[in-house]
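Entry details:
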Amino acid sequence: MAPEEKLTFSTLFKRVQGKVFPSIDDKRMPLLLHLTELRTRLIRAAVIMSIIFFGAFYFAPTLMIWIQAPLYSYFSPSKMAWVPSGLSDITFIFLAPAEAFWNSIKVSAVVAIFIAMPYALYEIWKFAEPGLRVHERRFALPFITLCSMMFYLGISFCYLVVLPFALNFLVGYGIDAGFTPQLSIGIFVGFNLWLLLVFGIIFELPMLMTLLAKMGFVDAPWLRKYRKWAYLCFFVMGAILTPTPDPFNQTLMAVPLVVFYEVGIIGAKFFGKTEDVDTAHAVQSASH
């Protein structure tokens, strides 16, 4: 008779995982059925995204007001409300007949992608789930969910904190220098949407580092060793990815990367393949 297993948090967590993610029988499917299922799931995601797009385009004037809000005001966490920034007299111009129309389409499309992304990821997950092992499914779904949450958190942080600060600083600097602001709606929308996307990706850095550590490609000591080189790369990336080539926006983008790199080191320390890394270090030491 096998000895009774000691009930710990780890064993209890594994039992719960076994109930939530039961094993799936390895049923072979012809390639044509795989392609048909993939097409069906992609069509579903495209239909949902199209519905959201037309709904967003109907409210395009409201969306354009939201896009302009970080310039005219800034968000106050203490008051939980938008506070006027003193730049409410700035007006926008368009330099081509269809510029305003195409920017409404652009904003509506980006909003549709952001909103429909969880459903699209769900369809991709359901397509790939039968081909994954049990332990891979237990890791993949929480990882995808957390990545989606971090992406939305990055967008929210950029919209509430970064954009008001960057826009008011840059436009205010131009006004103080004696220039009259005439902002193109196309350039302004492109600037905002690009920053939102970039910060959404920046917030994925800790998840990426944790995933690489989980797979055994890196570990916390290795990440700490090359920290200085990573910081240098972040400032270079900030200079390349920012819509305007000025040190202010470069620093504004590089600093969050530095912070999340440190968070990623913590994630790699706690969730990395410590046993495999320690064994590799022991074998390397023994060989010397």
